[in-house]
Amino acid sequence: MKILGISGSPRKGQNCEKMIGSVLELAKEKGFETDSVLLSTSEVGLCKACGACRERDFCVIEDDMEEIYEKMRTSDGIIVAAPVYMGNYPAQLKALFDRSVLLRRKDFALKNKVGAALSIGGSRNGGQEKTIQSIHDWMHIHGMIVVGDNAHFGGVAWNPVEEDAVGMQTVIETAKKLCDVLELIEKK
């Protein structure tokens, strides 16, 4: 089974990429195949709501989304990490989410994949739960199975993540839950 980690931050090598790195390392240790999408190095243009994807199996905007669509289609689980920008996730992640409508229109390609969310803010209560809820909303729109960290909504960390032991524990617990649910599904 394969887990895709998506870092929704435009900042290369920073908190979200560190969280995704930790999550994917844990998944590898548990025997999962892993892949990642880093929005800091990906070109994802804004959806123009042109409707072309209703008629085609591809988006007419030429950027990195075709590769991202394939990674999303071939994954069994998706974990998204996002920083809090003005109370929610950044525009770069919103662009990816908007463009994912193609996958919904094409037979709900993300339906029944397991999803989880992580967020980091500038303070302990810096908007992370709202950001996670917004990510969960996107997952529900696609018909995904959404999991948290066994006690809350998902991984909630405080900047800088490497100094936040409590936050990193919620990140790790969220990753464990994602892996556990995928293993349960595989047994059926």
SSE topology sketch:
Layout: E1 2-7, H1 15-29, E2 33-38, H2 52-55, H3 65-73, E3 77-83, H4 91-99, H5 101-105, E4 114-121, H6 128-141, E5 145-146, E6 155-158, H7 165-187
Parallel strand pairs: 1-2, 1-3, 3-4, 4-5, 4-6
Helix pairs in contact: 1-7
Write a structural description.
Helix content is 42%, strand content 18%. With 188 residues, it is an alpha/beta fold. The protein has one domain: 3-Layer(aba) Sandwich (Rossmann fold), CATH 3.40.50.360. Strands 1, 2, 3, 4, 5 and 6 form a six-stranded parallel sheet that branches. Strand 1 (2-7), helix 1 and strand 2 (33-38) form a beta-alpha-beta unit. Helix 1 (15-29) crosses helix 7. The model has no long low-confidence stretch (mean pLDDT 96).
CATH fold group? Rossmann fold
Estimated structural class:
alpha/beta
Biggest β-sheet strands, sense, barrel: 6 strands, parallel
| Helix/strand order | EHEHHEHHEHEEH
Query: Looking at this structure, what is the CATH superfamily?
Result: Flavodoxin domain
Total helical elements: 7
Distance between the termini: 14 Å
SS elements, strand count:
6
- The helix content is 40-55%
The overall number of domains is: 1
Instruction: Work out the oligomeric state of the chains in this entry.
Output: single chain
